[in-house]
Amino acid sequence: MNDDTAALLLGVESTPSRPAVAGRGIFLLILIVWTISLVRLGISERVNGSFMHLPNLVFHEAGHILFAPFGRFMAVLGGSLTQVLVPLVCAGTFLWQTRDAFGAAVAIWWAGESLIDVAPYINDARAMQLILLGGRTGSEVEGHDWEYLLNAMGVSHRDHAIATTVHAIGALTMVVALIWAALVVLTQRRALR
């Protein structure tokens, strides 16, 4: 990794104040505690009690509309896809537009959290017992996104394995983002000395 890339990824390009670095450190500690609680939920419990579920849901529903021109499969997949892509776009914007490595790391954390938010939905593809946006379960209506997607791909019998994998990728993404954010805070703290 060259010096310019390292400077960008570690937030060396900006010189934050002491209160900003302290605030980032405190926020990082909150994210660590929150990550532990979210990862512990596993795939059998929906994270809709989390503050982040509602913003995720807005992007999820918007994704269905955004991807509608590409056919039914993409319109259905577009919900979960957009829910994960929006944080990644935010991460890119933080990193390359504002040179905010800490903000980019937090946005990557959000992408991981979005994957954890989607995992119980995938896990429910056959059972269809999760309460959906309309207040009814997938079995009470005509199914739900992941029931359709996994059936369309012929892998509905693997819903639990796929959900476990998505949850693990989400958890790993969150941990990597937290490590990145910690490195940014430590680098910026050293720069203040």
Quick structural overview:
The chain is mainly alpha-helical. It has helices spanning 3-10, 18-41, 53-66, 72-97, 101-123, 145-153, 159-192.
Assess the beta-strand content as a share of residues. under 5%
Q: How many structurally independent domains?
A: 1
The H/E string reads HHHHHHH
Question: Which structural category do the helix and sheet elements fall into?
Answer: mainly alpha
Helix coverage percent of residues? over 70%
Low-confidence stretches: none
**Over all CA atoms, what is the radius of gyration?**
19 Å
Query: Number of DSSP helices?
Result: 7
Shape: elongated
Number of strands: 0
Mean residue pLDDT? 90
In this structure, how is the largest beta sheet organized?
Answer: none
N→C terminal distance: 25 Å
Task: Supply the key terms.
mainly alpha, elongated
Care to describe what's here?
The chain is mostly helical and 193 residues long. It has helices spanning 3-10, 18-41, 53-66, 72-97, 101-123, 145-153, 159-192. The two termini are 25 Å apart.
Write the layout of secondary structure elements.
Blueprint: H1 3-10, H2 18-41, H3 53-66, H4 72-97, H5 101-123, H6 145-153, H7 159-192
